């Protein structure tokens, strides 16, 4: 059994990977934790039975202790991860490290050095690698099912309602406070593309802007806050509708978890009260957001492999599509549809039922649980590293280079030069 200390007991810290500890108490146990919000520590005690004296009121207080567990889950906000990870490695912890590692390239590179120096297990929260969908696609490429790999096209459909929650009103609306969209949301996709390509990326080019969620597009007569707005019952983005009755985020549809980010006990009454003052009650056209709402990235990998990636807020569904071509065939599918299509040129199409593919002895594979299971297997010597930290860092380099390209109006960025510059400038 391995023991874990949780640094940052929010949505990810309490409800994602550590579900594994609940399901497999003989494999993983949460023994300590830290958060600056007392209610979150209370939840840590209730959910995982962590004793009072092992609950700390900040990351610093937790990291000032001697080593309290085999591993640390770092699940605070984006800009806190790298500093905490450095200290935790020095203390001797192995890490589950939430993505993004850091929005600052030099910090990613310094941490990479430290990980190699300390020789600890570090698994970055690239949960998509643990889904049957991408794992099967990777296996098909690796085993030559479509010949020589040529192109990878990926789309991330964020969903207008999800985008408004996280990237207009919520935590990730400003890149100067957290991370740019490509890193925060799409480092998963960059990571998957790099993993599927199997070789390093050489160049990237990116276009994209924040074009819709701006004051100029606010409907006539609308107010700065939804609860004061005459359009609160007709506007698609009305916070009242979204968090109470919408099928996407509404508490009436059992989606109270979305509102928990601004109200600890998300009853209808509490949500309506909180929306009067919370940032989540702001008009989507009058927030202080600055992250792009649609972007495209072109990528050139070694061996002539080409990638294209599109992320858009303007979709109904929240899903991801994949289309891979090779000299002898193609693979395509939609994440979440439980099937992958494999076409072998001249030999027809096979539909692979992903429900029949298991990626763990218990068949509980899937993002968060799969990653926690992978970490436990790694720590107990039963599995090889699946999320190589070097590849994770590479995917951050790709995302940050793409962001630099976007900011410069779509110039081509050579990754080798980009890394050299970060090295020169900051370390
Ligand atoms: N891997 C994934 O698929 C995935 C999905 C969503 C979010 N994330 C990442 O996980 C991280 C956490 O996201 P979240 O949705 O859980 O956010 P959250 O706000 O729910 O949780 C962050 C927690 O950190 C706590 N915190 C802040 N400062 C602290 C400090 N100094 N010491 C101790 N605790 C502190 C906050 O009080 C909060 O409880 C983010 O970096 C996010 O990008 C990853």
Structure at a glance:
Helix 5 (81-91) runs parallel beside helix 6. This protein has helices at residues 11-15, 19-23, 38-48, 59-63, 81-91, 105-118, 132-142, 160-169, 181-184, 187-197, 239-244, 256-259, 268-275, 367-379, 389-407, 415-426; strands spanning 2-7, 28-34, 55-56, 71-74, 94-97, 122-124, 149-157, 201-209, 294-301, 306-312, 319-326, 329-334, 339-344, 348-353, 413-414.
What proportion of the residues form beta strands (DSSP E)?
Answer: 15-25%
**What's the number of extended β-strand segments?**
15
CATH architecture assignment of the largest domain:
2-Layer Sandwich
If you consult CATH, what is the topology of the largest domain? Dihydrodipicolinate Reductase, domain 2
Mean pLDDT: 93
Low-confidence parts, pLDDT < 50 over ≥5 residues? 359-365
| CATH level 1 class label of the largest domain | Alpha Beta
Bound molecules: nicotinamide-adenine-dinucleotide
Biggest sheet record: 9 strands, mixed
The figure for the number of domains is 3
Strand order in space, largest sheet: 14-13-12-11-7-10-9-8-15
What is the assigned CATH homologous superfamily of the largest domain? Dihydrodipicolinate Reductase, domain 2
- Secondary structure tally, helices: 16
Termini separation comes to: 38 Å
What is the CA-based Rg, rounded?
22 Å
Helix content: 25-40%
| Overall shape | globular
Structural class given helices, strands, pairing?
Answer: alpha/beta
What does this structure look like?
This protein is an alpha/beta fold and 427 residues long. Helices cover 35% and strands 20% of the residues. It has helices at 11-15, 19-23, 38-48, 59-63, 81-91, 105-118, 132-142, 160-169, 181-184, 187-197, 239-244, 256-259, 268-275, 367-379, 389-407, 415-426, and strands spanning 2-7, 28-34, 55-56, 71-74, 94-97, 122-124, 149-157, 201-209, 294-301, 306-312, 319-326, 329-334, 339-344, 348-353, 413-414. The chain has a nine-stranded mixed β-sheet with strand order 14-13-12-11-7-10-9-8-15. Strands 3-2-1-4-5-6 form a six-stranded parallel β-sheet, sandwiched between helices. Helix 5 (81-91) runs parallel beside helix 6. The model is unreliable at 359-365 (pLDDT under 50). The site of nicotinamide-adenine-dinucleotide has 23 residues, from helix 1. Nicotinamide-adenine-dinucleotide is lined by residues 8-13, 34-37, 40, 58-59, 75-78, 80, 98-99, 125, 127, 184.
């Amino acid at each position: 059994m391995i023991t874990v200390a949780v640094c940052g007991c929010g949505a990810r810290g309490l409800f994602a990977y550590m579900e594994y500890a609940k399901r497999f108490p003989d494999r993983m146990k949460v023994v300590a934790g830290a958060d600056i919000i007392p209610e979150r520590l209370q939840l840590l005690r209730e959910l995982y039975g962590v004793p009072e004296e092992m609950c700390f009121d900040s990351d610093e207080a937790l990291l000032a202790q001697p080593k309290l567990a085999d591993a640390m889950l770092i699940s605070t906000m984006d800009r806190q991860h790298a500093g905490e990870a450095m200290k935790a490695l020095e203390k001797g912890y192995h890490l589950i490290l939430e993505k993004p590692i850091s929005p600052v390239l030099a910090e990613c590179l310094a941490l990479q050095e430290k990980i190699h120096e300390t020789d600890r297990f570090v698994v970055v929260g690239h949960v998509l690698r643990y889904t049957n969908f991408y794992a099967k696609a990777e296996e098909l490429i690796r085993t030559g099912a479509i010949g020589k790999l040529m192109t990878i096209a990926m789309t991330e459909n964020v969903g207008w309602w999800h985008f408004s929650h996280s990237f207009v009103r919520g935590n990730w609306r400003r890149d100067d406070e957290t991370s740019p969209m490509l890193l925060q949301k799409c480092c998963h996709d960059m990571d998957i593309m790099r993993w599927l390509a199997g070789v390093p990326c050489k160049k990237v080019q990116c276009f994209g802007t924040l074009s819709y969620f701006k004051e100029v597009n606010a409907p006539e007569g609308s107010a700065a806050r939804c609860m004061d707005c005459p359009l609160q019952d007709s506007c698609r983005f009305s916070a009242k509708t979204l968090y109470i009755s919408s099928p996407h985020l509404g508490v009436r549809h059992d989606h109270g978890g979305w509102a928990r980010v601004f109200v600890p006990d998300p009853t209808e009454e509490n949500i309506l009260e909180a929306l009067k003052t919370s940032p989540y009650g702001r008009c989507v056209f009058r927030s202080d957001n600055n992250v792009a709402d649609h972007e495209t990235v072109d990528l050139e990998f070694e061996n002539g492999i080409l990638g294209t990636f599109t992320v858009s807020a303007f979709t109904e569904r929240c899903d991801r599509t994949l289309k891979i071509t090779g000299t002898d065939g193609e693979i395509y599918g939609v994440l979440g549809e439980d099937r992958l299509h494999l076409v072998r040129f001249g030999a027809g199409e096979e539909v692979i039922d992903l429900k029949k593919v298991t990626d763990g002895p218990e068949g509980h594979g899937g993002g968060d649980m799969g990653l926690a299971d992978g970490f436990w297997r790694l720590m107990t010597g039963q599995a090889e590293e699946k999320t190589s930290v070097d590849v994770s860092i590479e995917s951050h380099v790709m995302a940050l280079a793409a962001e630099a390209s976007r900011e410069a109006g779509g110039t081509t960025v050579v990754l080798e030069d980009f890394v050299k510059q970060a090295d020169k400038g900051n370390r």
